[in-house]
Amino acid sequence: DGALLFNFRKYYDEYIASFNQRVLANYAANRPDLVFVIRGSKLSAATLGAMSSSVKVLWCQDVVRRIDITAEQLCHYDLRYVFDASDVSWMAARHQLDARFLPMGFDPEVYFPLVQSNKDIDIFFVGINYPNRRVILEHLVDDFPGLILRFYGRNVRYREPRTWARHLRYIAMGLGDIFVNQSLNPVDINRMYSRSKICLNIHHAQSEAGCNPRVFEIMGAGAFQLVDDVPYIKRDLGNALVTYEDYGALRQAITTYLDDDRLRNDVAQCARQAALEEHTYAHRVRRVLRDCNLN
Asked: What is the pLDDT of residue 81?
């Protein structure tokens, strides 16, 4: 295993070096006014230092504490944005660096309502099978045996035998059509949203003061969403979404909304309008350009 890990690290380091070389070559050829970086862990401090003639912007679309990015890398940016507002204070305390909160968004060319006459899925979920999510999904299977449930995600991992055992257990229990070990591309996800009466969204346990992109994608798709009430959603999106605070509230919301097509549609249309008015990626980019005095 040590040899495998050593070889993996060797090839990864070679990939990172090659990536940075390509970035610098592209930068030299184009000399952009603005360099806009998503996440930022692969772009080295040396590469960023060589871009001194441009405004450099970072948008961390993951909690900064969870990604492999150093203070040396972070300090090279002129503006730093985080998708979870808790990272603003963390970055100030840990690295003495300023950051700004910039929520996620969605692309209306990818997520939009489809004409769908038959909603043949009762509850749909897509995402990694984190423990907090798995507990909820398994409870739903037990509590709603008569519903059509579809939970998608690539959850069998090569180096984790427990994930194989769990997947085989699901199959043995006849749940292979519910817990589907498959990733979906955005086009297929949008199609599944349109087929579903309820789109369930469960945040990773580390979410404190932001929300995942599924929030805006489901809104933009014009689908009905049930989402856990993380603080940002309750504060800024609560009027356009139905949230739940615990499993009991989720179960009650499913019972309330599942058979009321009109009520679900009214909520979904309100959410879509809010998404289009404030939460596309174009809105986010315009905000960055204003902050850079480039708009």
From this structure: 96
